[in-house]
């Protein structure tokens, strides 16, 4: 469903000059699968997801979503994906129902089809209790559900969650992970990016560990554990990052010195 081959993205940065944020990344994510992108802040996860959702163009490499090329067929790609982040704008004065309806119209959905889809979605995400609550009066959990409903209104086969649990309390985050699992069971292809190891361990069928623009390894949790002969996922993760630092001439303490200790969160 998603094929990423030798993807590289360079930014022209005023301070750093030409900076490679994503460096030769390849992976495949399939239908009915939750694919986790795990990495500390700055690893390049958001850049990859922005390319998948056609907001940015690759510098090199080929990326296809549902068979469509993100550069050549960007409109088709957008029809096939929904994007959920932790900072989606929710309009204070629009109700949950109005917001989701508005996004359905933006996707050009016909009225009857839109209403049917909305009824199903509000039921599925348990949003009927707050159908008529305006954004300004919603809890964080309600807002997050509206963001998901908005991303799913056109029933895309691919859903992308970028650090979607950031800032949510444990209960809301737990509910969100439940929703993501049920979408997987309904056959969607899900990409879930996070810096939180436990979420990836509990949720993802396949994991790509990303650091400094590269994928250091990829596989199911079990495959990764066996390959690295390490049952403790946290040890495995830091082991891979430290090995990368050693091979690239940096001391492993740099992980902590650079303030990247928060990958432990
Ligand atoms: N528009 C830009 N111009 C220059 N550099 C950028 C730009 N956007 C991102 N970067 C840099 O690219 C690198 C990767 O950033 P990216 O946001 O993709 O990482 P991330 O893994 O999603 O981390 P985070 O969770 O902090 O967003 C970082 O060093 C970041 O500073």
From TrEMBL:
This is ATP-binding cassette domain-containing protein. It comes from the Bacteria. GO terms for molecular function: ATP binding. Coiled coil: none annotated. It holds the Pfam family ABC_tran. Transmembrane segments: none annotated. The keyword ATP-binding applies. Residues 2-237 form the ABC transporter domain. Belongs to the ABC transporter superfamily. The keyword Endoplasmic reticulum does not apply. Keywords: ATP-binding, Nodulation, Nucleotide-binding, Transport.
């Amino acid at each position: 469903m998603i094929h990423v081959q030798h993807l590289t993205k360079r930014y022209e940065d005023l301070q750093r000059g030409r900076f490679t944020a994503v460096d030769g990344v390849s992976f495949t994510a399939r239908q009915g699968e939750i694919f986790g992108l795990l990495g500390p802040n700055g690893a390049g996860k958001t850049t990859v997801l922005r390319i998948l959702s056609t907001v940015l163009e690759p510098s090199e490499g080929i990326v296809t979503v549902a068979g469509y090329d993100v550069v050549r067929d960007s409109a088709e790609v957008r029809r096939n994906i929904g994007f959920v982040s932790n900072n989606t704008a929710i309009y204070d004065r629009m109700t949950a129902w109005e917001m989701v309806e508005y996004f359905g119209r933006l996707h050009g959905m016909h009225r009857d089809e839109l209403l049917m889809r909305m009824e199903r979605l509000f039921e599925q995400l348990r949003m009927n209790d707050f159908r008529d609550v305006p954004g300004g009066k919603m809890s964080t959990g309600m807002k997050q559900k509206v963001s998901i409903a908005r991303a799913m209104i056109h029933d895309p086969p691919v859903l992308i969650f970028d650090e979607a649990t950031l800032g949510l309390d444990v209960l809301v985050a737990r509910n969100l992970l439940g929703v993501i699992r049920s979408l997987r069971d309904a056959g969607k292809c899900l990409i879930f990016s996070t810096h939180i190891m436990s979420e990836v361990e509990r949720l993802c069928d396949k994991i790509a560990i990303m650091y400094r623009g590269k994928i250091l390894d990829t596989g199911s949790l079990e495959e990764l554990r066996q390959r690295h002969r390490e049952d403790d996922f946290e040890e495995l993760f830091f082991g891979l990052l430290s090995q990368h630092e050693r091979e690239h001439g940096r001391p492993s303490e740099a992980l902590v010195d650079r303030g990247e200790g928060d990958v432990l969160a």
